[in-house]
Amino acid sequence: MVLENPASGVEVVTRHLAEGLLAAGVELRLYTYGSLENMYFGAATRGFGRKSAGPVAKTWFEWREVIDLVEPEIEVFHSPSFMLPIWAEKNQPWVVTVHDFAFLRHPEFYSSAALAYYQLGVGRSLARADRILCVSHSCQADLAEFFGAAAMKSEVVSPGYRKFALIEPDDSVLTEFALTETEFLLTVGTLNARKNLRNSLRAFRKLLTVRPHLRLVIVGSRGQALRSAFADEIAAFAANVVFTGFISDAKLAALYRRARLVLFASYYEGFGNPVLEAMSVDAPLVLSNRASLPEVSGYPADLLCDPSSPSSIARLAERIISDDVLRGDLISIGRERLSAYSWEKMTSLTLQAYEGLGR
What we know:
By secondary structure, this protein is an alpha/beta fold.
């Protein structure tokens, strides 16, 4: 495996996979570009111990340099995020996990530098892989559409989810942001345009015409950056929008539990972890009808929205807020869907994918 930043979403999944493989008795080695101080998996780790570097140096590590760390006895090399060492000699079978094909489905959401990185690296990585793991059937369908024959060597291995029902909620967040007696919607926002926060805000503005006291809570690690990016959009209703910045899982658990619904009208997701996180605490969601979200959620087509239409998002949100029977139906769907996903199942399917690849 190749690791870089243990704090990112991909590394959350990778941590659970590493722990699962170790529990299954697999002798695991981890390879990292950065400091070894943050490697907490309990596995043997090798890395260059570099504290920081630019994107060119990190790309060189992924595409070539990491192989210098790999011991000859390694039987299978697995990169958990898109890229394999495309400019290195191949001494063992290679496995790569792909999380989405947003750079091909929605190139308009990427900088020219990011597009060049993915366009140059992903196709070559897929060509060199002996096995490709896709996080959803939707992701696998995109693989077949964009890379044809590569899909023949792919398997669907979906991640598990953080079980917020088992996390003790920190209700101080409700007092901190004056939410104790207020009805609110919740969204986990980033500056990534494909997350569609702009249309979610426009939909929320429409909701305020019938629910003037409603608030929208936006959780994201760059709260001030989010506020600045959407300052013009929310100028007329800024008092109804809360940007929390980064918060702990315990505080997020409290918000998930108290939210009237979770807004996740993304243009594109390879999987969509917040869907299962919300379902784990019986929070109904407003979801788009794009990519993996219908698959992961199990919601019927008439209970999904068009992410390009703020009116569609707002109509569905109002329908869910006002109809308790519908809310109960969505909660029931969520409880059933959760049974299809777990970290244990992800580990088991990954081990099956490794079978037959060893030298």
